[in-house]
Design goal:
Blueprint (H helix, E strand, L loop, with lengths): L9 H20 L11 H14 L6 H12 L2 H35 L5 H16 L2 H19 L3 H18 L4 H10 L3 H28 L13 H16 L3 H18 L4 H13 L2 H20 L1 H12 L3 H19 L2 H19 L3 H16 L6 H12 L6 H4 L4 H15 L9
Length: 437
């Protein structure tokens, strides 16, 4: 096992110090209003990339550019970028009016105090069907923004509930990249991994729903919110939600939403030039999120080449011993990878080889290993302030005129934290049953 090069992880430390450190100083020490928004995540990642490029003098700059190019050209990164752009166009086309119509329609048919719980449940179903947390957040957060404005519930609570539901499906869906990566890497069937995962995820989801209902019912909000809404404007969201639940590909779902939204806009009198301008502004709104995905993939490619990930793997192998400790080690391994990459699929792919070795040493079945890798990657990814899910949620809210920071949302990310508790209970307190590998 290679010891690797721990100094290769320096770019991640630089990013964390600049982004989180300066943000905390501005917000809480210097008391700068909206201090975290004065720290550009793109600039801080560029600084981290510069540090990565300055390392390993054995490689020329041209060779490092080639390595970064291969990292950025990964299928998962390209897919993510295309989802970002298509999602931005969708938001630009349907705009604030469609989201508000969906919210007001929903709030007029159910008691207002249950609206946040409905957001969580709908997000769970859509994410399981679509297999993408990013796609789910893109579709549901605009509705969550409108629900918050209409009902009076806090925006961070509404967005946090949507993100929790999105990570539920990311962890369980048969068509999720994380499921595919974990099962292929450990050589187990998806249905076996699903069974292993479901008994951990379901208690966390139920506990989350109970917690959301407790918070909702303890509020002063009651009755139904009466407000005018245009049922025609709801059509794009109904189509994409139904498409998501049925399990249609996220690209097709978003395309259907864009086409239907554009047709409605033109039918209701919007000029074609204004429509294309809205599409352009929606796509442009995803610039920062797309740049983060590109920069992170480039940085991770260099860190991998310089031996940083080998150092992480070596440390995990030395620290965790024993079957239960080994299972926790697998979880922490993929968690550290996720913190470093901000991409849970990439984290699983990186952790797969050493996790497979640990599974053999500790006599852990492939299905359980795959479940641990997927679950812990979703736990960490679900709370990362610079993860794609968080960035998409913040961007989607900003597109609708609402400003919210990652640190406003994190306290309301109940599901990932309860999923961690459930995972630890199943690792340390519930005896393993004899299972075929």
């Amino acid at each position: 096992m290679k010891k690797g090069n721990a100094l290769a992880l320096l770019p991640i430390a630089v990013f964390l110090v600049l982004y989180l450190g300066l943000g905390i100083v501005f917000e809480y020490v210097l008391k700068v209003p909206m201090g975290f928004y004065n720290i550009s995540i793109v600039v801080t990642f560029l600084a981290a990339l510069l540090v990565a490029c300055l390392q390993n003098k054995n490689l020329s700059f041209d060779e490092k550019l080639e390595i970064m190019g291969k990292g950025v050209g990964d299928k998962n990164i390209i897919t993510m970028l295309l989802i970002f752009l298509e999602a931005g166009i969708f938001v630009g086309v349907v705009g604030r009016g469609s989201a508000e119509s969906v919210a007001y329609f929903m709030l007029s048919t159910i008691p207002a105090e249950f609206s946040v719980a409905v957001l969580f449940v709908v997000s769970c179903f859509v994410s399981v069907a679509m297999g993408t947390s990013v796609g789910t957040i893109t579709l549901i957060v605009p509705i969550a923004v409108a629900v918050s404005s209409a009902s009076g519930f806090s925006l961070p609570l509404c967005i946090g509930s949507v993100m929790g539901g999105a990570m539920f499906g990311d962890n369980l869906s048969f068509i999720s990249d994380t499921t595919i990566a974990a099962c292929n890497g450990q050589g187990c069937k998806m249905k076996d991994k699903f069974r292993e995962n479901f008994k951990i995820a379901l208690p966390a989801a139920i506990a989350t729903l109970v917690l959301i209902l407790a918070l909702s019912l303890s509020s002063d909000i009651s009755g139904r919110i009466e407000h005018e809404y245009n049922l025609v404007q709801i059509i794009p969201y109904v189509l994409v939600l139904v498409g998501g639940i049925v399990g249609i590909n996220v690209f097709v779902v978003l395309l259907v939403g864009i086409v239907s939204g554009a047709a409605i806009m033109l039918f209701t009198g919007t000029a074609a030039t204004d429509l294309f301008a809205s599409m352009g502004s929606g796509a442009a709104g995803m610039f920062e999120t797309s740049m983060v995905a590109i920069l992170v993939s480039a940085i991770c490619a260099l860190i991998r080449e310089h031996g940083g990930f080998d150092a992480l793997l070596y440390a995990c192998r030395k620290i965790f011993k024993g079957k239960k400790s080994g299972q926790l080690g697998m979880g922490m391994l993929v968690g550290v990878m996720d913190v470093a990459t901000a991409n849970n699929t990439v984290a699983i792919v990186m952790a797969n080889p050493i996790a497979a070795e640990m599974a053999k040493n500790y006599d852990v079945t492939p299905r359980k290993t795959a479940s641990i890798l997927d679950t812990f990657s979703c736990i960490f990814q679900g709370i990362l302030p610079y993860g794609a899910q968080m960035l998409v949620a913040i961007t989607a809210a900003a597109e609708l005129g609402k400003t919210v920071s990652a640190f406003d949302i994190i306290p309301f990310l109940f599901y990932p934290l309860l999923l961690l508790v459930s995972s630890l209970v199943f690792i340390f307190l519930i005896p393993d049953k004899k299972q075929s590998k």
